[in-house]
Prior knowledge:
Blueprint: E1 15-25, E2 35-41, E3 64-66, H1 67-77, E4 81-85, H2 95-103, E5 107-112, E6 124-127, H3 137-142, E7 145-150, H4 154-163, E8 171-176, H5 181-194, E9 198-200, H6 204-207
Parallel strand pairs: 2-4, 4-5, 5-6, 6-7, 7-8, 8-9
Antiparallel strand pairs: 1-2, 1-3
Amino acid sequence: MKNRFTTDADNNGRKLPLVEEFYSLQGEGFHTGKAAYFIRIGGCDVGCSWCDSRFSWNPAFHPLTDTDTIVSNAVFSGTDSVVVTGGEPLMWNLDYLCSVLKQKNIHIFLETSGAYPLSGEWDWICLSPKKNMPPQPEICMKANELKVIVQDLSDFEWAEEYRRQVNKDCLLFLQPEWSSYNRIIDTIVDYIKKNSAWRISLQAHKFMHIP
């Protein structure tokens, strides 16, 4: 997939391939339970086998939408927080989106694999590194939260590798891959009991059957 960040197709971030936008509760990691407006941006070539948002992978399926319109919709929802997710949102220039949201006094949270260079100014960066395309060192150092998806035992080693690369204040989370939950949850609990720097992240929104 071509990274359109390097072209003028998005008009320097003034248009983005919008997959969906909705007001809900954050379902994962440190901010679980907090109300937020979600902006899902199309495009991803990381290709995780267990991805639950494959519909977002091809940006051609999602219309380039005026970023000002996206921001207006977020403001109209009444939210004070926005989560930008994907896909892999950093395939796009997010400087303009962040600058306009900041003008509206909205807190901005990023969910990223870190595979592409960082753009935008963020109040919180959740880094979820993937083996297919490891994250950029700059994002490791700036991440507020490291969230590693655990599907099998090899993922614990992967988690520890990136624990060593993030900054000392970064919060550490292990999250069971949803379809493997029943098989892997006890192993994660035992691991955290022995490695207490880690916390568990559950996909609370799926348990609650909300977006």
